[in-house]
Amino acid sequence: MASLQVDGVTVAFGGHRALDAVSIGAEPGRVTGLIGPNGAGKSTLFDVISGLRRPSAGGVSLGGRDVTRMPPGRRARHGLARTFQRLELFGRLSVRDNLLVAAEMGPERRRARHMVAEIVERLGLAHLADQPADALSTGAGRLVEVGRALAVRPRYLLLDEPAAGQDGEETERFAALLRSVAEDGAAVVLVEHDMGLVMSVCDDVHVLDLGRIIASGPPEAIQRDQAVLSAYLGE
Ligand code: ADP
Ligand code: MG
């Protein structure tokens, strides 16, 4: 199966374990939530999956292939794309050109312009397409980040707090977009603080706290999980 698997991943910064034997899976056609308090290790786990940080133990596989030692660029060619918590857009380029740069690196570079037009439409960014990225609100900037990840037609899509700064209407449209990306066959992993969005859009949820998975399951069960409630309340 073309799933994303993280198996027993440990990352230590000095003596501090940011991730401690973490195992999670994400399946194509599903949106998998990864939640947890600040500092839980969510972004570090994305760094391990995308190849920016080597774990001291454990591994990552994509579609059954062990990619633990594979550099980030090769993982991207296996269909992995991610967004960053901090925006990484080209500030002076327009929204359209930011998307074009990404599309021209993807597997369908000859259709890049067509794909960009499609993504602009899908993300509701038509009215902003000619604006420089610098001029965007945080919410819109994050949507463009997501658009850049979509432009490479990912099979595995990692989103790090993509809805931060979006208003209610933007979040609703974004939820529909995530569902459609999954329905197109991608395995989507969503790191997000907006619990309403997580609970409405995710098929499965993993909860990280202090570098450990403390719960995994469907959103309804996670919402009622005592360990999860305690972690969020800081007890
Ligand atoms: P989250 O994304 O869940 O908020 P992070 O993955 O950013 O959490 O961080 C997890 C833990 O690892 C935190 O305690 C953080 O301070 C620490 N950390 C993250 N990156 C580094 C780094 N480059 N050097 C040292 N510690 C780090
Ligand atoms: Mg983070």
UniProtKB/TrEMBL annotation:
<dbReference type="Pfam" id="PF12399">
    <property type="entry name" value="BCA_ABC_TP_C"/>
</dbReference>
<feature type="domain" description="ABC transporter">
    <location>
        <begin position="4"/>
        <end position="235"/>
    </location>
</feature>
<dbReference type="Pfam" id="PF00005">
    <property type="entry name" value="ABC_tran"/>
</dbReference>
<keyword id="KW-0067">ATP-binding</keyword>
<dbReference type="InterPro" id="IPR032823">
    <property type="entry name" value="BCA_ABC_TP_C"/>
</dbReference>
<keyword id="KW-0547">Nucleotide-binding</keyword>
<dbReference type="InterPro" id="IPR051120">
    <property type="entry name" value="ABC_AA/LPS_Transport"/>
</dbReference>
<protein>
    <recommendedName>
        <fullName>ABC transporter domain-containing protein</fullName>
    </recommendedName>
</protein>
<dbReference type="InterPro" id="IPR027417">
    <property type="entry name" value="P-loop_NTPase"/>
</dbReference>
<dbReference type="InterPro" id="IPR003439">
    <property type="entry name" value="ABC_transporter-like_ATP-bd"/>
</dbReference>
<keyword id="KW-0813">Transport</keyword>
<dbReference type="InterPro" id="IPR003593">
    <property type="entry name" value="AAA+_ATPase"/>
</dbReference>
